[in-house]
Amino acid sequence: MRGCTTLTRMVPRGAYTLTLKAQGLLVEGSTEELREELYLTRRAMQYVVDALCELDKLPTPNQAHQMFYKVLREQSFRAHQAKQIYKYALSLVKSAKVNGGKKLELKKLSARLDKYDASVDLESQVVIIKLRNRVFKIKLLHRRNYIRKFIGRKWYEVIISIDRQGKIWVSIPFRWDYDPYKPRNVISLDINLKKVVVYDGRRVRRIDTRFTEGLHLKRLAEGVQKRHSYAWRRDEKWLEIIRTLHRRSRNIVVDWCRKFAKYIVLRAKRTRSAIVLEDLEKLWYNASQKSSSLANKLSRFGYRKLQLAIITKAIEYNVPIVFVNPKNTSSTCPKCGARLTYTHRLAICSKCRFIADRDVVGAMNIYLRAIQTIAPCLGSWGTHPMTNETRAKGGLRDEPMIVYIHPSLKTYKEVNPKGFRIACSHASTLH
Ligand SMILES: [Zn+2]
Predict the structure, then answer these.
(1) Of 415 and 263, which is predicted with more confidence?
(2) Ligand 1 centroid – CA 12 distance (Å)
């Protein structure tokens, strides 16, 4: 039992961040001025990044403050924006060093502002930001219902950016407390490129993904690249066509993932179920370099997007999420446990005559695996793994869960660490 259960992971309760993202419309200040400010911010950030890359050892936040604060202030950045610039540059360089340390070149036009330089009024959907000595008032263009979800929650920074098409975007990460309910049922998902198979213990449901549509667009892009061999790299027209195809492909996938995530999370909530997914992280990260076909890349991308979309929605609605070890989920009989023989995608059990297609077998086995591992620990659902303290006290018995947090998902503590406050003598006089 031990060996099997330690492979089950879950998203622990706690504070996370969910981000409000909306297109913005300037109602005060000009786009040109905003672009200029973001350009200056990027230039300053690049300067700090380059300086940090030169160092053998990264400075502490306080040392970084000593190094860059004055220089940034001399370029008339506001006290807290200066702090945001070196703080973010520091985290960028840190993660780049972890990932092998390529030269960092900032491309996006964006600025991060904290409470001292930004104000957010969700009731009237207006964000006001101050960049150096300019003030911009931005209206959030999004559905009222979407914006309302965030009213009354804590936020700590506003990110403003301008994309390639000249659109203004506003992102505001909010604190969100995740407290999953105790599940009474389980819904398992078996995901592949074409279909998601959903099994709730009684009924099997097949839902078409839109990954193949995304794949089709990616193939078109690849076709353009092949036809024009190397010319496309230098030709703006072809580059734009290729970029557009990739963007459309991505949009289809991301869009579908969000829709499906909402559907499945609301359904789980209605039936007080936990959602169970295959833990494919390990499988793919070992095999990812070997198989680099378009379909493989897209299903990897799609699966990660879908996983993140489901986790994000689950956090919003307090739905528990479990990941189980996917080993042998399609090769053992869900009824008797014997090894299955396959004719194409049809599985047949020679022992008990069970017949089903591959994805259904997967969904059923994932379901069974979850039931086996969740059942004994329902009482301690959602608790963090044993700390040394609880272990010393005798520990929580039957705690097979290992904490799992998607790499793109941020806990509140991570992005808003306490105890990191700079001594800004000018700050109080500025706002
Ligand atoms: Zn069987």
Answers:
(1) 263
(2) 35
Q: How far is the CA of 374 from the centre of ligand 1 (A)?
A: 23
CA of 421 to the centre of ligand 1 (A): 62
Give the domain-ending residue among 343, 359, 381: 381
Is 5 within a domain? no
- Tell me the mean pLDDT in the region 283-309: 72
pLDDT digits (tens, 9 = 90+) for 361-406: 999 999 988 888 776 555 444 444 444 443 333 333 334 444 555 5
Residues 196 and 152 in one domain: no
Last residue of a domain, one of 177, 205, 237: 177
Q: 41 C-alpha to center of ligand 1: Å?
A: 64
What does the mean pLDDT of the chain come to?
Answer: 82
Say how many C-beta atoms besides its own lie within 10 A of residue 308's C-beta: 18
* β pairing state of 185-191 and 273-278: parallel
* 374/265 same-domain check: yes
- Edge-to-edge strand order for the sheet containing 204-208? 204-208, 195-199, 185-191, 273-278, 321-324, 9-10, 402-403
Query: Cα torsion for 191, 194, 200, 203, to the nearest 10°?
Result: -160
Query: How many whole angstroms from 346 Cα to the centroid of ligand 1?
Result: 14
Judge whether 42 and 109 are in contact, CB under 8 Å.
yes
Average pLDDT over residues 235-260: 90
How many residues does this entry show for the chain? 431
Neighbours of ion ligand 1 (CB under 5 A): 333, 335-336, 338, 349, 351-352, 354
Does 11 fall in a domain?
no
Question: What is the span of the domain harbouring residue 300?
Answer: 181-381
Task: Kindly state whether residue 393 falls inside one of the protein's structural domains.
Answer: no
For residue 193, the model assigns a pLDDT of 84
The total domain count for the chain is 2
In a domain, 330, yes or no: yes
pLDDT-based confidence at 424, cuts 50/70/90?
Answer: very low
